[in-house]
Inverse folding.
């Protein structure tokens, strides 16, 4: 399963922080929205063979998985295990981070909460 302490890339973290400034949605909540949007879109993370091309989880916002995922923790972990049965621990966390990065791309530029909620509901 996922490690207890998790983080994202700096770039994803910056997008989450900007989204919070615009909409007031906390980074942990917007990361959940981004994760599920990525899953729904059909995105698949492909683990890299070399460490140089691996996604660098260098963000400063290190939270426990309960904070990152809240009530969606069981569903999130089960979706990841179904989609990536051969991944464990840090590799599974990297897959989660890749999905958050993919999903945040579609919502990061919204400046108002009602605008964001409309996009989430209609797409």
């Amino acid at each position: 399963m996922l490690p207890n302490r998790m983080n994202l890339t700096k770039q994803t973290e910056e997008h989450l922080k900007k989204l919070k400034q615009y909409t007031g949605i906390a980074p942990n909540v917007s990361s959940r929205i981004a994760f599920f949007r990525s899953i729904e879109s059909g995105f698949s993370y492909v683990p890299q063979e070399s460490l140089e091309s691996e996604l660098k989880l260098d963000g400063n916002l290190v939270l426990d998985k309960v904070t990152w995922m809240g009530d969606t923790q069981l569903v999130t972990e089960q979706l990841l295990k179904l989609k990536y049965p051969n991944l464990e621990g840090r590799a599974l966390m990297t897959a989660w981070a890749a999905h958050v990065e993919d999903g945040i791309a579609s919502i990061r530029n919204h400046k108002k909460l009602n605008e964001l909620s409309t996009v989430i509901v209609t797409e």
In short: The two ends are 30 Å apart (CA to CA).
